[in-house]
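not sure who needs this but someone in the group chat was asking about GTP 3',8-cyclase from Niabella ginsenosidivorans so here u go. i didnt clean anything up, its just raw.
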Amino acid sequence: MITDSYGRIINYLRLAVTDRCNLRCTYCMPEAGLDWRSRKELMTYEEMLRICSLLVKMGIEKIRITGGEPFVRKDVLPFLQNLSLMNGLQELTLTTNGLLTAPLVPELKRMGIKSVNLSLDTLDKNRFIRIARRDGLDKVLKTLDALLADDIAVKINTVVMEHCNITDIVPLIQLTKTAPVSVRFIEEMPFNGGTHPVSPAWSYLRILEHIREHFPGIQKITDAPHSTSFNYHIPGHKGNIGIIAAYTRSFCGSCNRLRVTPTGVLRTCLYDAGTFNLKEIIRGGCTDEELETMITNAVLKKPTDGWEAENRLAAQKSAQQSMATIGG
């Protein structure tokens, strides 16, 4: 097992395979996009498989593939196939914006992927274009339909933004009435590439209050271990609702995650600046035993929560990044 200095068992890896994305969402990056990493700056699939294999041997049980948008990277499906066959890995999931995903759903099903997080911030076509700066709602909804048709569990991730998509909260909740989906409303985080300051006005409690106004019968349900969301159910609905306090960070105490960015930086917290670069160390000839020791030592320095990590970041005078460069 990988254990931090607070006794938390770390068994979940979020691995970003690319920083590139085919959307330009306002809460993630500037309209012009980012200074995309060159191919040689990214980890190769072989390097990622080596890292994942080592981490699984060390105790990682679940891997989530993120980006950017994972499916904009060439040949990602064979990589996912190799991961799905990795001995000891219990769960492989992914997060996608859905634009390229619908035709790939049967292959994901065949690999044994049982759960997908789908980014969807609105059901209104014009508002989708304003948020994502691209047209693509129809493709996302086709992906949603394809995933449900193949019995792949879907968590819809919705970033709640003041003066932007508040009117979408109720229509998105209505999806849970007839579909077995979990719609999760996420506090906006300060990882937008510096495009605008983040307002904490729509916190977890404000989102919940807004939902209760429209669905007074909403009931709290049990949260799974290490859940980042506070989960609820509306009687008579097939699906559930979650609220993720990503900015106020009230779930940090049970964190069981590591993150690896597209360029190989190991991050023990979403809000930290990273510890060291796995890719560079591997290319320098490091053995698995040496890597394991370095990872173990890094985890022992994992901050108690996101507030401590952010304070360390401020002390280092590091700028907040885009979510695409961090890996979600």
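also The first strand starts at residue 2 and ends at 3. if thats useful
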